[in-house]
Amino acid sequence: MEQTTVAAELNGDAALVARARQGDASAFEQLVQKYERRIFRLAKNITNNDEDAEDVLQETFLKAYSHLDGFQGNSKFYTWLVRIAVNEALMKLRKRRSDKTVSLDEGVDTGEETMVREIAVWEDDPEQKYSQEEIRAILHEAIASLRPAFRTVFILRDIEELSTEETANLLELSIPAVKSRLLRARLQLRERLTRFFKRKGDDIFAYL
Amino acid sequence: MTSLLTCKDFLTALNEYLDETEDAELRREVERHVNECPNCWVVFDTTKKTLKVFKGVDLHPLPEEVHRRLMERIHQRIGGASKPQA
Fold it and tell me: Can you give the CATH number for the domain in which A43 is found?
């Protein structure tokens, strides 16, 4: 995005937040309509459950409204919103797990875990073989198969396009931890998708 | 640098490469490695395609009724308190 567009967008949000703080309901509604799609997608990707995603969506905007005065103008409104949404979504995730041990710290091994098993060339346009609906199902299943610790990093970095620093800050992880989880998530997803997108007749063999 | 990256180093560098690192040296080394190593070329190519597929699809479009219920709750909340607590 161009510098000027970014600046305009930031100013736009800041102005809307300022008006919402003064009690201008339509300003807050504009903010909701601008970000509800991204917050819902984030919530659904993390919780992997329709009902939870809807709760997270509602709670995020209601909390944002209640805490507008606590919003520091020096961060982006969207990043602030994402922080609320991620916390809400992780709480839901923990509640759903009977063992209540879902943690973003799990799986922080630095060992020589095998990261690449299938090597097969993909079709040139792998998406063409499937309907939009099937692609969604494949991608959704692939993301859902990741451990929460990897999934959350992938969602924030590669889907919501937050920076490494923003992601580290939000999840209270170090920058190297974000990078290493992102790499694993990307490679695991690659592995999953290879099953669907590989070119017919190509051999699969292991390396590393 | 003259020696080729090992496959393991390539994987680490791949992350930076995909994040569009401005480190020209690192980009060159990744490209040189994949030109020499067919397996890593496949990993390189399919990982790029993985990200492209994910970026090209809105996985969870917002259902109309979810949007409607959200707006209802917001209206209730804003209607109930004309102003956030100062």
Answer: 1.10.1740.10
Q: Can you say whether the dihedral through the CA atoms of A150, A154, A156, A159 is positive or negative?
A: negative
Domain that holds residue A161: 105-208
Q: How many domains does chain A have?
A: 2
Q: Which residue has the tokens 């809807």?
A: A54
Q: CB distance from B43 to chain A under 8 Å?
A: yes
Do B46 and A122 make contact, defined as CB atoms within 8 angstroms? yes
**Dihedral sign for Cα atoms in the order B15, B18, B20, B23:** positive
Which residue from A87, A81, A100 is spatially nearest to A46, judged by alpha carbons? A87
Looking at residue A199, its pLDDT comes to 83
Which of A96, A114, A147 is a domain's end point?
A96
Contacts of A143 in chain B (CB under 8 A): 59
The residues with which A198 forms a beta bridge, in sequence order, are A122
ipTM here: 0.85
Question: First CA to last CA across chain A, in angstroms?
Answer: 38
Long-range contacts of A131-134 (CB under 8 A, 24+ apart): A132/B57
Q: What pLDDT score does A206 carry? A: 47
B57: nearest CA in chain A? A136
Mean of the pLDDT values across residues A129-157? 92
Residues written for chain B: 86
Domain boundary among A96, A114, A141: A96
Q: Give the domain ranges of chain B.
A: 7-80
